């Protein structure tokens, strides 16, 4: 019995045995230099927005109570107005530049077209269909629209956001939303197939 054990150890450990050890693959492929540049540009634009938001919020009177929902809502409305005033001429593309939009659209479409994409599509289509609205930068995400979260499969392929911002899907539009103020920071039209 001992010779059989040694035979197995030698056979498994020998390089020419033909036994293949499976390779572990990352879910995110190694990015190209162009993807790294696009991701850095997006990250820099996000950091600039969050810095502006924090600076403007710091200029407001502080909340007296973090438990009073009316006071929190009022604070968010004032912050929203101050942000809009500080960014009066912002248009679509201020964060999602054409290059960044193209990268996001490709990632989104790839996620919706690969095997298993039915789960992703179902996640997006759950709930009531959104009412048609005009999406615009510095507009308010409609309170009566369903909050369609970004499917986890897609989220794992997109750049991470700080807690002040979130991705949302509104019909076929991919939205970058300010979590504190419900303000549409930027969007990509016709991004969702």
Describe the structure.
Strand 2 (173-178) and strand 3 form a beta hairpin. The chain has one domain (37-53, 70-188). The chain is 44% helix and 9% strand. The chain has helices at 2-13, 33-58, 69-86, 98-113, 117-125, 152-155; strands at 165-170, 173-178, 183-188. Strands 1-2-3 form a three-stranded antiparallel β-sheet, with no helix packed on it. The protein starts with a helix and ends in a 5-residue tail after the last strand. The model is unreliable at 1-28 (pLDDT under 50). The relative contact order is 0.14. With 193 residues, the chain is mainly alpha-helical. The radius of gyration is 24 Å and the shape is globular.
How much of the polypeptide forms β-strand, as a percent range?
5-15%
H/E topology pattern: HHHHHHEEE
Sheet/helix structural class = mainly alpha
**Mean of all residue-level pLDDT scores:** 77
Residue runs with pLDDT of under 50 for 5 or more positions: 1-28
CA distance, first residue to last residue = 62 Å
Major β-sheet annotation: 3 strands, antiparallel
Net shape: globular
Descriptive tags:
193 residues, mainly alpha, 3 strands, 6 helices, three-stranded antiparallel β-sheet, disordered N terminus
Task: Please provide a brief summary of the model.
The chain has 193 residues and is mainly α.
Blueprint of the fold:
Layout: H1 2-13, H2 33-58, H3 69-86, H4 98-113, H5 117-125, H6 152-155, E1 165-170, E2 173-178, E3 183-188
């Amino acid at each position: 019995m001992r010779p059989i054990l040694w035979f197995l150890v030698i056979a498994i450990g020998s390089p020419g045995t033909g036994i293949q050890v499976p390779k572990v693959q990352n879910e995110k492929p190694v990015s190209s230099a162009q993807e790294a540049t696009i991701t850095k540009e997006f990250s820099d634009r996000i950091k600039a927005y969050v810095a502006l938001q924090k600076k403007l919020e710091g200029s407001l009177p502080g909340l007296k109570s973090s438990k009073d929902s009316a006071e929190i809502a009022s604070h968010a409305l004032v912050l929203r107005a101050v942000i809009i005033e500080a960014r009066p001429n912002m248009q679509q593309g201020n964060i999602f530049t054409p290059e960044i939009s193209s990268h996001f659209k490709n990632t989104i479409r790839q996620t919706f077209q690969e095997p298993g994409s039915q789960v992703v599509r179902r996640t997006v289509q759950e709930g009531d269909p959104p009412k048609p609205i005009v999406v615009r930068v510095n507009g308010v995400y409609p309170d009566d629209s369903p909050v369609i979260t970004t499917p986890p499969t897609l989220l794992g392929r997109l750049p991470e956001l700080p807690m002040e911002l979130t991705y949302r899907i509104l019909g076929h539009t991919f939205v970058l939303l300010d979590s504190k103020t419900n303000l549409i920071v930027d969007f990509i039209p016709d991004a969702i197939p």
